[in-house]
Write a structure and sequence with these properties.
Distance between the termini: 38 Å
Helix content: over 70%
Largest sheet: 2 strands, antiparallel
Low-confidence stretches: none
Number of helices: 13
C-alpha cells in the first residue's frame, strides 16, 4: 500500500511539476493578459464610481465594498475561464484521446492535479497585479489571518466543484465535432453567473436564484465575498458546507457522465 502511494505521488507530482514550466513557456501571453487586466481595472473603477454617483449603497454594498470586490474579481477572473471542452475536442479530433485513455493512471485525477497546480501558479503570478491594485486603485485586503484561511479554503472547494462541472461539460466533446463554440458559451455564462462582472447581490432576485443553481459562484463570488469583506468570516462554515455538497454531487455525477460518454469516443484523426 505504501509502495502504491509513493508511486502515485511520484506520478502526480511529476504532472504537477510540468505546470509551472508551461506557464513560463508562454511569457508573452502572461504580459498581454497582465496589461489587459490593468486596463480592465481602470475601466471598472471609473465605471463603478460613476454608477455610485449620488447613491450610498447598491444591493446593500457601499462603493468601497464594491470596488474591493470588483478589483479582486478582475484579478481572479481568468482562473474560472476553463476551456476543458475545447481541449477534449482537440484530443478527439487529433486522435490523441486514444493515448490518453490507455495511460495507466486516473484521467480525471490527472487533469485535476494540473488544474489545482495551475491555480496555485496563477495566484503567485497575480501578486504583482495585486500590488498595483493596492497602490493605485485603493484595494484593501484583510489583515485577519482567519479571513485569508477562509478565502483559501472556499476557493479550493469552489474550484474543485467547478472542475467537476467542467469535466461533465467537456464530455459533450464525445458527441460533437465542434467544441469551440461550446467553450465560448461556457466562458461567457461563467463570467456572468460567477459574479466576476457584477456582484451577485446587485442582480434581480430571479437571476440570483439562477446563479445559486449553478456552480460558478462557488468558485468566484463566495470566496471573493469573504476576502473583500462583503461576507463576514463568521459565515464561512455555512458556505463550506454548501460547497462540500456541490463537490460531492458534482464529483459523483462527473464520474458517471464520463463513464457513459467515453463509450461514444470516435477517433476523427491520427
Amino acid at each position: 500500500m505504501i509502495a502504491a502511494l509513493r508511486r502515485h505521488l511520484g506520478i502526480y507530482g511529476a504532472i504537477a511539476a510540468v505546470v509551472p514550466k508551461e506557464y513560463l513557456a508562454y511569457n508573452l501571453w502572461f504580459w498581454a493578459e497582465f496589461v489587459v487586466q490593468i486596463l480592465a481595472m481602470i475601466i471598472y473603477v471609473y465605471f463603478w464610481r460613476a454608477v455610485y454617483s449620488g447613491v450610498d449603497r447598491l444591493g446593500g454594498l457601499t462603493l468601497d465594498q464594491t470596488l474591493n470586490y470588483i478589483l479582486l474579481a478582475r484579478i481572479l477572473a481568468p482562473a474560472i475561464e476553463s476551456r476543458l471542452i475545447f481541449h477534449f475536442g482537440f484530443l478527439i479530433g487529433q486522435g490523441q484521446v486514444a493515448v490518453e485513455l490507455t495511460r495507466p493512471l486516473d484521467l480525471q485525477a490527472r487533469y485535476y492535479v494540473q488544474e489545482l497546480t495551475g491555480l496555485g501558479v496563477f495566484l503567485l503570478l497575480k501578486l504583482p497585479l495585486l500590488a498595483i491594485a493596492i497602490v493605485f486603485f485603493g484595494l484593501r485586503l484583510p489583515a485577519d489571518p482567519a479571513v485569508w484561511l477562509a478565502f483559501l479554503a472556499s476557493l479550493a472547494l469552489g474550484h474543485a466543484a467547478l472542475f467537476c462541472f467542467d469535466w461533465m461539460f467537456a464530455c459533450l466533446a464525445f458527441y460533437t465535432t465542434e467544441t469551440w463554440g461550446l467553450s465560448m458559451v461556457r466562458v461567457g455564462v461563467a463570467q456572468f453567473f460567477s459574479g466576476a462582472l457584477v456582484p451577485l447581490a446587485m442582480l434581480p432576485g430571479w437571476l440570483q436564484q439562477a446563479a445559486a443553481a449553478l456552480p460558478f459562484a462557488q468558485a468566484m463570488a463566495v470566496p471573493l465575498g469573504l476576502l473583500s469583506g462583503v461576507t463576514p468570516v463568521s459565515q464561512a462554515p455555512g458556505f463550506w458546507l454548501v460547497q462540500l455538497a456541490w463537490l460531492a454531487g458534482l464529483g459523483l455525477a462527473a464520474r458517471l457522465v464520463f463513464a457513459v460518454a467515453v463509450r461514444k469516443v470516435t477517433v476523427q484523426g491520427g
